[in-house]
Design goal:
The longest helix has 14 residues. The termini are far apart. The chain is about 20% helix and about 35% strand. Strand 8 and strand 9 form a beta hairpin. It contains five helices and twelve strands. Strands 1, 2, 5, 6 and 7 form a five-stranded mixed β-sheet that branches. A five-stranded mixed β-sheet has the order 10-9-8-11-12, with no helix packed on it. A two-stranded antiparallel sheet has the order 3-4. It is an alpha/beta fold.
């Protein structure tokens, strides 16, 4: 990148820059494009500096792809570590807003972001929260099972918990034994199961004991008082 100008305007700092590379890689076919089709300016919001908002005005070029059969006729250049297609935030600011969204979600997160010098609406934070990939549950050896109501008397679900971390690992439709038995067959590491005294989840232990065993020595532990 080439830093062209830094100016202070009321309420924020604006950084003017352009891309120094002579060519760009076409995302459609991976070949190097050198013919410039045009230029335009994109604005990225960056992490605040001493409580002052920062905006990056980056002049980028659109290149023509000369590869026959390429699905893209033109492509815009990207700066690794700074820009991605259609992004409006720099990676540091996106990471900070995502952390706020994970901790506080919508309205509360927007209030904290504003106090830190970043304007972000609750919908923006919720969209960032939805974009966070679900963590992988990993190996579960102590499993907790319980049902819950999505619509009392009509729609139910089953939540599965890792009792060592006390975090949910999966949600199954209904509150029947069959989905739980199918889940256990694909997760043979379960050794201990914690459930309440309801009989709905007693059958999975019979199912996996007859022919297709999930894990040797699975113990059903009743957690209800």
């Amino acid at each position: 990148m080439v830093l062209e100008q830094v100016e202070r305007v009321p309420g924020r700092i604006v950084i003017h820059a352009s891309v120094a590379a002579a060519t760009a890689e076409c995302p459609g076919c991976g070949t190097t494009a050198a013919r410039v089709h045009g230029r335009y300016q994109r604005v990225l919001r960056d992490a605040p500096l001493a409580g002052t908002q920062v905006a990056i005005r980056l002049t980028v070029r659109r290149f023509l792809c000369d590869m026959a059969g390429c699905p893209r006729r033109t492509c815009a250049e990207q700066v690794p570590g700074l820009t991605t297609p259609h992004a409006r935030y720099s990676p540091p600011l996106r990471g900070a807003l995502t952390a706020i969204a994970v901790a506080l979600a919508g309205r509360a997160g927007a209030r904290l972001a504003g106090a830190l010098g970043v304007r972000a609406g609750r919908d923006t934070l919720l969209n960032l929260l939805r974009a966070v990939p679900d963590p992988q549950p990993g190996e579960v050896d102590v499993l907790g099972i319980d049902d819950f109501s999505l619509r009392r008397g009509h729609v139910y679900g089953t939540v599965l918990l890792n009792m060592r971390t006390h975090r949910p690992v999966d949600v199954l439709p209904g509150r029947d034994a069959d989905p739980v038995a199918d889940w256990l067959r694909t997760h043979p590491g379960v050794q201990i199961v914690c459930r309440d005294r309801a009989g709905a989840y007693a059958n999975p232990w019979e199912l996996h004991q007859t022919g297709e065993k999930v894990a040797d020595g699975v113990v059903g532990a009743e957690s209800g008082a």
